[in-house]
Amino acid sequence: MVDTLPQNGVLRVVPEGALQRFEARQAAEKRKAEDELKLSQVATTNLAGYIRSQFEMMKNHRNSQSGWSERMAEALRTFNGVYSSKKLSEIEKFGGSQIYARITAAKCRGASSLLRDVYLQADRPWGLDPGPDPALPPNIMNSIQQLLRVEVATMEASGQQVDPTAMRDRMNGLMTAARQAAKKKAAAQAKIAEDKIDEYLVEGNFYKALAEFIADLPIFPFACIKGPVVRIVPSLNWENGTAISTPRPRMFWERVSPFDLWWTPGAGDIENASIIERSRLSRADLNDLLDLPGYDQKEIRAVLDEYGRGGISDNWDATDSERAVNESRENPMMNQSGMITCLEFNGNVQGRMLLEQGMDAKLIPDGLRDYMVQAWLIGQHVIKVQLSPSPRKRHNYFITSFEKMPGTPVGNGLTDIIADLQEGANSTLRALMNNMAIASGPQVMVNDSKLSSGEDADDMYPWKRWHFEDDPVNGTAQVPISFFQPNSIAQELLTVYDKLNAMADDMSAIPRYLQGQSAGGAGRTSSGLAMLMGNASKILQAVAANIDRDVFDPLLTALYDIIMMTDNSGLLTGEESVRVMGVTVAIQRETQRSRQLEFLQITANPIDTAIMGPEGRAQVLRTVSEGIGMPGAEIIPSDDVLKERQQQASQAAQAAAQAQGNQAPKGGNVTGDAGPRVNITGGPQ
């Protein structure tokens, strides 16, 4: 299909694809103008205007030369193996191959694989430690004092002299034993609480969000995970074969695309920055919000009325269109799905604005102070605003980078680290393909002036007869058609490409044998390959440290705070502390397991068994079995069962000894008469 567009009095022929892009651009510009007109007709509140001004400031900085919007777009192109439009036009102008060497994508997949081995295995990369010195209950202290008084009274009644030093030592011994028992009980309680917290994480899709976060981390300059976010969701129960749906609050975690996040440009630490997240809602989502407490129903109905079925997508960014293409989604500028853009603001706002918004004056005692709030803005309508529920006054966005840069939340991904090598590999591979294509057959030189009329020099096939005319000056000395073979430099280009690949291994610290390729050298043996892969895992210790410090530690602490504020079961005491072990798992997993097995073998002797006792040996067996992925708690009996078995064995031994003692000697005299006594010489006395 070919259409025409008028231009300066002439007809310009436009290909079908260009015509569709032109019409789409025209429709998008018309829609944007209509949205801006609607926004200009809506009364702007101070809070809505403040949030919008903050968003424009953050967006302008991110799109500037010192920002990172173009870096994210380039990272997504690199991972997908797509050239930018500018680069593609240069390649098309040259007429060469458009092949793309996806070295960076392979490195990103390898890095994600290593990180998944650390954070998404059966071993939890985190734990919960009890308090270092749990307080003794008052009844225990009273029991110890009562026991000492009884012992003193017993000694005095028997006429023994009471030694104050001995009694003090006795008191210290009892206190030490009580503290050890309290620590053991606190550790068991912390283990139960840890399992309960993990249930919250599993129920809230935390590990699914973590897997997506790990996939983002090596690609983009930063990755983000958000949560916990409390949502009211239906809980389905069955009673007598009837489904009963009951709404209840649940905590959720989710991965946030780096393209949908903006924050204060001058912030050096993400904890101190105001953050705006852009999300897209459907009309059904807004209808569900009408039934939830805390949302402004009047503002939500105004949004549903003003934007009708057409939706609104006014918060555009420079990379939105290209991002939509690379993610195989609808271009938001078209918005045929009728989605409604919402901005979620997390930051400090002056109390005066909050009072003007209609917040309770009891919550805002000072209009000149700033308060940490969460607010949701659609167009010029603030559909909800609330004070931050976090007692630490911290937003629930947790961000880190594959390679951290001091003084800024934005670091480097693998796409940034090996960008030059990726560009060099692309150039080399394109040159290789072009050279192989040119050198695949002979080049033909044709003297068109000597060809007979009607002879087609472009038509070539085997055993073709060529007709040409004599040159009246030179006769037939000059051959009208000749051939030559272009030189192939494929081997040299392959050598360069392999060298660039090896340099990418060194720069990224993600060797090729992680993707199943041959390692060569020491990697030709199983033990050598295991050693190489162990070294590769150690390289990611810095990345694991970033995740531990910037994501797991504050995220689990925030979850701990919410449980402490909402749970009345006494699950947590407030003295526990979160322990993150991602780096430890990355470093010590294989080493720790091998050392556990060695310890198990070394202590398998009567002396060590007597020292540890059955309970100690059982604990060693539980630790080793859990380390190799077996359910140690189910295989090894508990301490109570072992004590019961010991008591049964002791009772059985006593019964056997008693029975043996009561058994008469064979041929003995049961009357008590020992018979004639015999001296040592054997003669009768």
Give an overview in words:
With 685 residues, the chain is an alpha+beta fold. Helices cover 49% and strands 14% of the residues. The protein has 21 helices and 14 strands. It has helices at 16-40, 46-62, 69-80, 85-94, 103-119, 138-157, 164-203, 206-216, 283-289, 297-307, 320-326, 351-357, 414-417, 419-438, 490-508, 526-539, 541-566, 582-602, 606-627, 632-635, 639-662; strands spanning 3-7, 10-14, 126-129, 223-239, 242-256, 261-263, 275-281, 340-350, 370-378, 381-387, 397-400, 443-446, 481-484, 577-580. It has a five-stranded antiparallel sheet with strand order 6-7-8-9-10. Helix 5 packs antiparallel against helix 8 (206-216), helix 6 packs antiparallel against helix 7 and helix 18 runs antiparallel to helix 19 (606-627). The longest helix is centred in the first third of the chain and has 40 residues, at 164-203. The N and C termini lie far apart (138 Å). Mean pLDDT is 80; it is low at 1-11, 37-44, 518-529 and 668-685.
Based on CA atoms alone, the radius of gyration comes out at: 39 Å
- Give the fraction of residues assigned to helices: 40-55%
Describe the biggest sheet? 5 strands, antiparallel
Q: Distance N terminus to C terminus?
A: 138 Å
> Strand-residue fraction?
5-15%
Overall pLDDT score: 80
Q: Indicate the low-confidence ranges by residue numbers.
A: 1-11, 37-44, 518-529, 668-685
The helix/strand class is alpha+beta
The DSSP helix count reads: 21
Sheet with the most strands: spatial strand order: 6-7-8-9-10
Question: What global shape is seen?
Answer: extended
Count the beta strands.
Answer: 14
